Amino acid sequence: MKKILILGAGTAGTIMANKLHQVLPHDEWQVTIVDQNETHIYQPGLLFIPFNIYTCNDVIKPKRDFIPQEVELIMSGIDVIEPEKNRVKLANNQVLSYDYLIIATGSHLAPDETEGLLGDGWNKNIFEFYTLEGACNLQKFLKHWSGGKMVLNIVEMPIKCPVAPLEFLFLADWWFTEQGIRDKVDLTFVTPLPGAFTKPKAASILGDFLDKKNIHLVTEFNTGSVDSSANKIVSFDGKEVEYDLLITIPTNMGDAVIERSGLGDELNFVPTHKHTLQSKAYENVYVIGDATDLPSSKAGSVAHFQADVLIENIQRAIDGLPLVEEFDGHANCFIESGFGKGLLIDFNYDVEPLPGKFPLPGIGPFSLLQETKANHWGKMMFRWIYWNLLLRGSELPIQAQMNMAGKTK
Q1: Which residues, including other chains, have CB under 8 Å from residue 395's CB and lie 6 or more apart?
Q2: Quick check: 31 and 6 in contact, CB under 8 A?
Q3: Which of the residue ranges 83-97, 109-123, 360-374 would you say has the lowest mean pLDDT?
């Protein structure tokens, strides 16, 4: 029996396990997926926990609930990948051989990469919300915070879900207004980017939102260190920003097994062909989701669109056919803007976010680059879609490639 091995049972790995189970003959192919954590976290929901919109239990379910019974699930850490030998050594001493390997090991926060970030202020007046623990700790802190200068700082790019920092600030503006202390809170966004977002057109619009909400923007700030004794962040060129409460988005890095295996760049992301999702180094190795080094967003929607392309390319590789170069960097993101409204952006490698209607041209119901209540409800409904359709590899009415229909330049 031939074998496909998937490393990582996060969003990307789970979708691929389900899609492979749907298309491959079970008497010819064994699909195995490896992960060391039993719990699956709905990462878009972490944003809502600090503001009591979700509880910590609202975003977790057992990973086993989303893996088909015929797919072998092994709960273990990964010691090393040996692509020259077509095998992977696990932390539990198992050795798994494969015909095709899919690396879906994701990314994680690396606060230890920034001098002083893990100092005395960590989880006292320095927090992150990209992990379940961090979001829940911040929820407890904000419940009793009476105000001051809140600084949200992106240490460096790339990061998971590049719009999440902006969403956090927009929700903070709403939350502190609801608590009656918005006039006592100074909100500042400190980013290494030249604007509020990675795409200039969207950055301009989102920058206007920051102005309207009285959120200060500090650009091109490359964080070098954190001085928790003086409550300030310091850039490599000596600029300083003081804070009473620091919300940090630390350096994001790929899994340590990528470094141990000699497969990654300086941030442990795997060099990947940007249109086929094949490893640049090994013909029978593919990479998906946050584990890639691609210039696309590290977001759940991207993993979904990549999976639609990768499932076709795996089948083509099995049949000895050339791979299709169909992944175009497509990303689709709801942006929660507070007060029961939201925005929506849709873009790819080459096309910036444009106004229009989505997913049905001229109809919607969602509006691109516009703040609407429908976009907010689209964001809130997505949790059900994620658990019940997306993770299970179901066909969704959104094509993998960006569609220009219904958009206006």
Answers
A1: none
A2: yes
A3: 360-374
| CATH number at 110-251 | 3.50.50.60
The verdict on whether omega for the bond into residue 353 sits within 30 degrees of 0, i.e. cis, is no
Q: What backbone phi and psi angles, to 5 degrees, belong to 383?
A: -60, -40
Q: Are 87 and 38 in contact (CB under 8 A)?
A: no
The confidence score (pLDDT) of residue 201 equals: 76
pLDDT in tens, 61-100: 999 999 999 999 999 999 999 999 999 999 999 999 999 9
What is the topology classification, in CATH, of domain 2-49+60-108+253-318?
FAD/NAD(P)-binding domain (3.50.50)
Pairing of strands 107-109, 126-127: unpaired
Find where tokens 């691929």 sit: 16
| Burial classification of residue 271, based on how many CB atoms lie within 10 Å of its CB (0-12 exposed, 13-18 middle, 19 or more buried) | middle
In tens, the pLDDT along 158-178 reads 999 999 999 999 999 999 999
Residue 204: which H helix or E strand, with range? helix 200-212
Angle of CA points 134, 294, 257, to nearest 5°: 60
8-state DSSP, 13: H
DSSP letter string, 289-346: GGGB--SS-BSHHHHHHHHHHHHHHHHHHHTTPPPP------EEEEEEEETTEEEEEE
Share of the chain above pLDDT 90, in %: 91
